[in-house]
Amino acid sequence: MAKKFAFCSLSTKCDDVVMWSHYANSHKGIVLGIEFNESEVQDSLQKVEYLNQLPDWNVEEFFRFINGEEEFQHIFLNDLSVKSKHWANESEYRIWLKNPGYWVIKEDQIKELYFGVNCDLATKKVVLEILNFLPGYFPIYQMEINKNTLDLTW
Predict the structure, then answer these.
(1) 10 versus 56: which is more confidently predicted?
(2) Does the N-terminal or the C-terminal CB of the chain have fewer CB atoms within 10 Å?
(3) pTM, full prediction
(4) Could you tell me the pLDDT band of residue 5, with boundaries at 50, 70 and 90?
(5) What is the 3-state secondary structure (H, E, C) of 71-84?
(6) Looking at the 3D structure of the chain, how many domains does it have?
């Protein structure tokens, strides 16, 4: 069923050491700060719930959704927005589309760029060349490790 949808995972954080380690190739990647128009995502944006145990699941309603009853779509999407409490540091949101593919980020939605601590010059050059075609200006930051606290800063 998930193959009929497209999902984009987002976070409210840009400075989590663990996420940079896991999702940005050991701090070699980038993070884009994006601002969405609320009306554009209101029906497709879901905050991930971090729980101690899985909620009750209504199998009958799930199968009704699989059989094409759209009013039960929320059963499927809510189930995909639950994670163990152990992942709560991610502060994750998910945007979904009802078709496979990609969520297209509009040029004016990019508000900032963060390069990872270990991002190499070749990657920076490619990213900056691509972003050079975008109109407008947004700040660009280099992540650094605070030697006293071991937190990420920019």
Answers:
(1) 10
(2) N
(3) 0.81
(4) confident
(5) HHHHHHHHHCCEEE
(6) 1
Q: Could you tell me if 96 and 9 are in contact, meaning their C-beta atoms sit under 8 angstroms apart?
A: no
Q: Is residue 67 part of a domain?
A: no
Asked if residue 8 lies in contact with residue 103, where contact means CB atoms within 8 angstroms, the answer is: yes
Q: Which of 2, 30, 6 shows the shortest CA–CA distance to 104?
A: 6
Q: Is residue 39 part of a domain?
A: yes
Residue 108: which domain range?
2-51+82-153
**pLDDT tens readout for residues 61-92:** 777 777 777 777 777 777 778 899 999 999 99
Nearest 5°: the CA angle 42, 5, 101 is: 95
Quote the CA–CA distance of 151 and 24 in Å, as a whole number.
16
In a domain, 70, yes or no: no
Residue 20 lies in a domain: yes
Task: Give the C-alpha separation, 128 to 119, whole Å.
Answer: 13
